[in-house]
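Structure ticket #2291
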Amino acid sequence: MDQPLRIGIVGCGKIVAQYLTSFRRLRSVRLVAVADIDMGRAQAVASEWNDGGADTEVRAVSVEELLASPDVDLVLNLTIPAAHADVALKAIAAGKSVYGEKPLAATTAEGRRVLDAAREAGVVVGCAPDTVLGTGIQTARKAIDDGLIGSPVAATATMVTPGHERWHPNPDFYYLPGGGPLLDMGPYYVSALVTLLGPVVSVIGAASHTRSEREIGSGPRAGEKIPVEIDTHVTGVLTHESGALSTLVMSFDAVATNSSNIEVHGSDGTLAVPDPNHFDGDTRLFRLGGSEWETLPVSAGYTDSGRGYGIADLATTPEGEEPRAGGALAFHVLDVMESLLDSAHSGKSVAVTSRAPRPSAVPLTDLGAAAESESGTPRKA
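Resolution: structure written out below.
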């Protein structure tokens, strides 16, 4: 209890750099080891960290060595979605807590196995996205909780892009089971909607699969064709337990949109919510009877945050309490998305059987500064 939460990373791909940036700022966590099936990538990440003037040296090891390491408390799982459950289960079997990139797993069946195994082992599960802990979504949530829009009635959430293959040099996994616009980008939007409006009880959806292959647009594989095995445009309506209705559009087929990322409509006003893929951004309010949008002052959330702040939040969550970016929320979000795809294929409304309590609000907090000055210590998982 008198030491930071010691982190081992499995998966040293593109996103790892964002976590490294946060870990350099947070004293409640300490990176100790990195691993990848490509040892060269792990060694490159370790060298980058060690050359950056870190207080402690990070070692590059095999995945098996990392899982067996006694000085790793929590495994940060940055593998591709199809491997999320397998790596998480191995980490749990080794007595480690685990925090993964979204989604929690490729299917709810896999996700349930992860949560059940963690409960039996007495370890903690956390999961991205932790963007909902930043000042953008949290300021919007506070506005709702403070009654600035009256009673919430509905929300819209829109994400459109012509496809990640245009910029990603190895986009294959985006178009395989576990990928697609809903499972790739949906966690940001559905997590935000649950944070803003509470859990979802039912969904009805529709989806389309417009092309059987895509062409890589950048990198050494530019021009190569890759297969598409998932729906690339998904839309639907989520019914929240509160009665509010959220309309969701997730697409890898559309070019652009003028729609706000998220809007929340209430009896007394409408909120324009910033991009849930970011930690900050302006929250704007149009009041009933008003004449223009007003930008609300930042009033809640972790300031200057980034990927990895969900792990710091987990590290300081009291024993026995669910972390804000915890497994229960991640499983509910996965259940909502899987149910939406089931509805799209069946043409019928689908009940969402899981429940996750709306995570507690984040007061306006500089977590980096708080961690540096606190006299107490973060909990270990």
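Closing remark: The first helix runs from residue 16 to 23.
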